[in-house]
């Protein structure tokens, strides 16, 4: 085999690899852009992702009291695996509490419905999932008068893991964090030192058959060791999803927690 032949084979192989990588990135489906919420208070928006040229959706809630004159709190909410991007806005009493307590709420997609927000690895799809979240947050911060000391991040299941990860990557943004039935302080995608100063709410059902409650218990134990401000609420008999999605009380706990924490510097 001549050197020229080897080079041609190498070039051909590289082309195949690049093609495979492009195919992996393009594995978005029409269902990724589906919405679940028909409540007229929810704005269903789109933007064009610079990196891929694709049109991606996100959902936004703005309290009726907002007129731009005063800074408002911002809550970034990350959905669970397979759920629609606006899914969390349908949780029991969620929008009513956001209206009452004065929260602008945004729910990004994370590139696909199972994108993981970046915590699953450093491959291209994960990078795009993370990029989607941060781009949407940036757009909302630019458009609205946001209180930079009252920006919060939380998620459910996959979104809980995404919360630990995104918070670790951008720790200076957040006034408070919350994870429901997902993620943990000791996961390899978490920078514990980066987020140890941020108050953290952990929610979990004791009978969760999808994500064992022991993971949150271990996470909370680590928070105690680190001296973190935190609150752990374990719902006796609670499952993986309905313990929060169908409970105004648990949703209220989320808002009550964020209401009392803020950045002090």
Walk me through what this model shows.
The N and C termini lie far apart (66 Å). The chain contains 8 helices and 8 strands. α4 links the parallel β5 (146-156) and β6. Helices cover 37% and strands 21% of the residues. The protein has a single domain (3-259), classed as Rossmann fold, CATH 3.40.50.
Number of helices: 8
Q: What's the architecture, going by CATH?
A: 3-Layer(aba) Sandwich
Portion in helices: 25-40%
Largest sheet: 8 strands, mixed
Name the beta content range.
15-25%
**Could you give me the name of the CATH homologous superfamily?**
Alpha/Beta hydrolase fold, catalytic domain
Order of helices and strands: HEEEHEHEHEHEHEHH
β-strand number: 8
Shape: globular
Strand order of the largest sheet: 1-2-4-3-5-6-7-8
Q: From the helix content, strand content and strand pairing, which structural class follows?
A: alpha/beta
Distance between the termini: 66 Å
Whole-number total of structural domains: 1
Question: Which stretches are poorly predicted, pLDDT < 50 over at least 5 residues?
Answer: 1-26
Radius of gyration: 20 Å
Return the CATH topology.
Answer: Rossmann fold
The CATH C-level class name? Alpha Beta
């Amino acid at each position: 085999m001549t050197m020229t032949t080897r080079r041609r084979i190498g070039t051909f192989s590289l082309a195949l690899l690049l093609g495979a990588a492009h195919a992996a990135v393009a594995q978005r489906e029409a269902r990724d852009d589906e919405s679940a919420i028909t409540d007229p208070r929810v704005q269903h928006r789109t933007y064009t992702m610079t990196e891929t040229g694709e049109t991606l959706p996100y959902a936004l809630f703005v309290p009726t009291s907002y007129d731009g004159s005063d800074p408002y709190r911002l809550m970034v909410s990350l959905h669970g695996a397979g759920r629609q991007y606006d899914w969390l806005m349908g949780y029991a009493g969620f929008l009513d509490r956001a209206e009452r307590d004065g929260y602008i709420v945004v729910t990004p997609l994370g590139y696909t419905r199972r994108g993981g927000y970046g915590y699953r690895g450093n491959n291209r799809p994960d990078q795009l999932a993370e990029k989607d979240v941060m781009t949407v947050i940036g757009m909302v911060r630019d458009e609205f008068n946001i209180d930079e000391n009252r920006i919060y991040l939380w998620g459910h299941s996959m979104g809980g893991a995404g919360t630990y990860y995104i918070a670790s990557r951008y720790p200076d943004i957040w006034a408070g964090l919350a994870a429901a039935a997902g993620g943990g302080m000791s996961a390899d995608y978490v920078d514990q030192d980066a987020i140890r100063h941020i108050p953290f709410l952990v929610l979990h059902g004791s009978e969760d058959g999808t994500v064992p409650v022991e993971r949150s218990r271990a996470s909370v134990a680590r928070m105690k060791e680190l001296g973190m401000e935190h609150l752990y609420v374990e719902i006796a008999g609670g499952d993986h999803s309905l313990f929060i999605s169908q409970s105004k009380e648990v949703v209220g706990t989320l808002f009550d927690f964020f209401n009392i924490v803020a950045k002090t510097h």
